[in-house]
Amino acid sequence: MKNYQKKFVFLVLFGLFLNIYVIHSQTNNDVNIYNWFDKTVGKDNLDLNNGTPHTNPYRTIGDSHLYLINKYELGKITCEGQKYYEVKLKYDIYRDILVLNPYGESENTGINLIQNKVQSFSILDKNFVKIDRKIVTVPEFTLGYYEESKIAPDFTFYIKHHKDLQKTVLETGVFYTFKENNSYFIELKNNIYLIKGKNDIIKLFPEQKKQINGFYLLNRELKKSDLNQFMKNLMKYISNSLSIQTK
Questions:
Q1: Which of 53, 72, 159, 199 would bridge with 88, disulfide CB 3.0–4.6 Å?
Q2: DSSP labels for 80-146?
Q3: What is the pTM assigned to this prediction?
């Protein structure tokens, strides 16, 4: 019996036994149900465990690496419509690959998950979605994984995490360094806009020019230390200012 069929049978029996819950809700109890199933069937036999072996051929200098963070983190993932909780994930942002550490395996073992089967995942309190649409007017909005922050019903902020590769030849061999080079996008009323700097934001929200300039002035240190968080905070600030103006 295929794993998804097993999952259906187990969840139905378990639901009848406890007389609770709708399968697709996202409450803590449902997380427990999914985890109960994973343990019952065996996490090493789940449909999630398919893909190619993960390899990292890059010898790096110092603490440089090609990942969002250079270790596996517990997260959750939706793959082919199935939800999996408390799985070990690592995100290779240079090659845009989501890596799974199979249950019970050493962290030296990783599986590259097939991107067209992954709908979304979450790690480090960040929510990622797979974008599979092209925008002719915004060619920079490429296919792949994006960190998604829903700011308002018609306002979504996206970060495309990426690192650039630099090659260095030393006497001891060839080494590489990776430098973060993210892209930012705003989806506003179903239109996508590339954000390269403050002027692009002001063009979208001209009535917020004064507030935006003030935010940049007051948050210069955060902008230098953590541009991603700065941008997310700015988006929330703009949304709050807009909601106050419309009251």
A1: 72
A2: TTEEEEEEEEEEETTTTEEEEE-TTS-TT--EE--GGGEEEEEETTEEEEEE----TT-TTS-SEEE
A3: 0.81
